[in-house]
């Protein structure tokens, strides 16, 4: 309980400090409104689960909130938390039993569906690198930052990811 | 880059754009996430002190409750989607003496209703039967500790009403959205009553779901 109260107090203090710091443009509320959906989309693409994406992004914002005001580049900071959580999410899936999803989504065209299946079969880090490069259009340096690795590793992940996709599609 | 590579990349981008376009994310603000609906965020230090004091009182009250014994209660839950099958959650579970209860009512993306009962033991560890086994503690003490949701409400459900076995109703003040979680799900912290009928209402006041909780046995 003490930790929750401390977190709340620290969060409040951080928010006040953030409001007072001129280099922080906009409030956390605005940041949340702007970045929530893009981050859920990113997490959905990396995990393949819409539900998990919402949860993981929510947790990422909660993780970031106490540090608001001390982060110079909030979007890359948040993105790294989201990607990290997506990559560790696999180990937590066994704790939940998915409920049926009755949400009606338009069926994708067959080539799109095939590609999505192929993407889903990529190892998580390759998939994350592919998503960050070809959906988010990030340069390799920022992908490296999001994944917490070197640019050379990103090149390797992208190269191997594309090769695997090509192989899967041509099969 | 070869033409084949370009085609692959274009197809890849198209697939990713499609997947992103069907992503569903509940529209909400940070304020909605931080505090229960209808309340403003804590903005002044005295309010923070009051919140901490309330938390402390809740802790003492919870500890006092957990320290007393309660009768063994047999609870049954079910869902329209799974009542004819054994999995994924059992129909009847016996809760041990001295356990606290939290009723968790969940609907998923407009889909089946689930009425779940979570038992809160003295060590704040959940022993439960529900769709998502969860070791996290429940109740107000869990707020801010990364509580995992057990499911999510249909997007268009704006209010839930619960009729208990004694004929009383849960008021909106009892049914409250849990905060600091990703999903809008409602928790009733009620240690003496058993839900009988769960009704969900849409924005226009119409009844979206009316679910009778079957096979309740109090003993």
Note the topology.
The complex is a heterodimer of chains A (171) and B (219).
Chain A: H1 2-20, H2 28-47, H3 50-64, H4 74-89, H5 110-120, H6 124-134, H7 140-147, H8 151-170
Helix pairs in contact in A: 2-3, 2-4, 2-6, 3-4, 4-7, 5-8, 6-8, 7-8
Chain B: H1 3-21, H2 30-34, H3 45-67, E1 73-76, E2 92-95, E3 100-107, E4 113-120, E5 126-129, E6 159-164, E7 176-177, E8 186-188, E9 195-201, E10 207-212
Antiparallel strand pairs in B: 1-2, 3-4, 3-8, 4-5, 6-9, 7-8, 9-10
Provide a descriptive summary of the structure in words.
The complex is a heterodimer of chains A (171) and B (219). Chain A has helices spanning 2-20, 28-47, 50-64, 74-89, 110-120, 124-134, 140-147, 151-170. Chain A is mostly helical and 171 residues long. Chain B has 219 residues and is of the alpha+beta class. Chain B contains 3 helices and 10 strands, in the order αααββββββββββ. Chain B has helices spanning 3-21, 30-34, 45-67; strands at 73-76, 92-95, 100-107, 113-120, 126-129, 159-164, 176-177, 186-188, 195-201, 207-212. Chain B has a 5-stranded antiparallel beta sheet with strand order 5-4-3-8-7, with no helix packed on it. At the A-B interface, α1, α2, α3, α5 and α6 of A face α1, α2 and α3 of B.
């Amino acid at each position: 309980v003490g930790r929750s109260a401390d977190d709340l107090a620290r969060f409040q203090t951080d928010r006040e400090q953030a409001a007072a710091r001129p280099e922080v443009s906009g409030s956390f509320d605005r940041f949340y409104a702007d970045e929530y959906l893009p981050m859920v989309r990113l997490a959905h693409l990396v995990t393949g689960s819409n539900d998990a994406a919402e949860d993981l992004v929510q947790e990422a914002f909660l993780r970031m909130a106490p540090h608001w005001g001390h982060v110079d580049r909030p979007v890359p900071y948040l993105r790294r938390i989201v990607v990290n959580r997506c990559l560790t999410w696999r180990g937590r899936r066994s704790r939940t039993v998915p409920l049926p999803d009755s949400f009606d989504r338009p069926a994708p065209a067959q080539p799109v569906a095939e590609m999505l299946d192929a993407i889903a079969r990529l190892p998580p880090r390759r998939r994350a690198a592919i998503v960050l490069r070809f959906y988010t259009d990030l340069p390799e340096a920022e992908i490296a930052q999001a994944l917490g690795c070197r640019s050379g590793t990103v090149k390797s992940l992208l190269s191997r990811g594309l090769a695997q996709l090509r192989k899967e599609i041509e099969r | 880059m070869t033409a084949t590579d370009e085609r692959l990349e274009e197809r890849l981008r198209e697939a990713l754009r499609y997947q992103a376009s069907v992503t569903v994310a509940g529209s909400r603000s940070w304020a909605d996430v931080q505090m229960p609906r209808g309340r403003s965020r804590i903005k002044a230090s005295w309010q923070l002190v009051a919140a901490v004091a309330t938390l402390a009182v809740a802790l003492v009250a919870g500890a006092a409750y957990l320290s007393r014994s309660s009768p063994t209660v047999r609870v049954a839950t079910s869902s329209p989607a799974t009542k004819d099958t054994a999995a994924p959650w059992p129909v009847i579970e016996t809760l041990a003496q001295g356990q606290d209860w939290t009723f968790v009512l969940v609907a998923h993306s407009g889909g089946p209703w689930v009425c779940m009962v979570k038992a809160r033991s003295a060590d704040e560890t959940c022993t439960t039967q529900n769709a998502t086994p969860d070791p996290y503690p429940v109740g107000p003490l869990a707020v801010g500790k990364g509580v995992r949701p057990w499911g999510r409400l249909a997007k268009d459900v704006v209010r839930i009403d619960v009729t208990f076995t004694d004929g009383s109703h849960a008021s909106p003040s009892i049914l409250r959205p849990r905060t600091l979680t990703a999903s809008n799900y409602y928790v009733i912290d009620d240690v003496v009553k058993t839900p009988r009928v769960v009704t969900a209402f849409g924005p226009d006041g119409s009844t979206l779901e009316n679910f009778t909780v079957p096979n309740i046995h109090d003993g």
